[in-house]
Amino acid sequence: MLCKEKQIIIEFKDKAQEIKIFLIILFFGIYLKTSSIK
């Protein structure tokens, strides 16, 4: 049981990392678009 919980936590951390990278790329893309308009 404990092993399965650890697996879920590890998977969640990997997902969080992916989401973080995606948000950074998304935010950077929006920033570049808004700065090029000005």
Protein model, in words:
The structure is a single chain. The chain is an all-alpha fold and 38 residues long. Helices cover 95% and strands 0% of the residues. It is rod-shaped and about 55 Å long. The mean pLDDT is 90.
Can I get a quick summary?
The chain is mainly alpha-helical. It is built from 1 helix and no strands. The model has no long low-confidence stretch (mean pLDDT about 90).
- What is the CA–CA distance across the termini? 56 Å
Q: What is the mean pLDDT?
A: 90
Proportion of residues in extended strands: under 5%
Detail the poorly predicted runs.
none
Number of helical stretches of at least 4 residues: 1
Strand count, sense and closure of the main sheet? none
How many strand elements?
A: 0
Order of helices and strands: H
Helix content: over 70%
Radius of gyration: 17 Å
Inertia-based shape: rod-shaped
Structural classification: mainly alpha
Keywords:
mainly alpha, 38 residues, 95% helix, rod-shaped
Layout of strands and helices, then pairs:
Layout: H1 2-37
